[in-house]
Amino acid sequence: MVNIESQLFSSGLTLIAGVDEAGRGPCAGPLVVAAVILEDPKDPRWDRINDSKKLTEKVRDELFADIVEHALCYSIIEISVHEIDTFGLHKSNLEGMRRAVNSLQVAPEYVLTDGYPIAGLEVPTLAVWKGDQVAVCISAASILAKVYRDRIMVELDNRYPGYGLSKHKGYITPAHSRALIEFGPTEIHRRSFKNISGLGQ
Question: Are the C-beta atoms of residues 178 and 163 closer than 8 Å to each other?
Answer without folding.
Answer: no
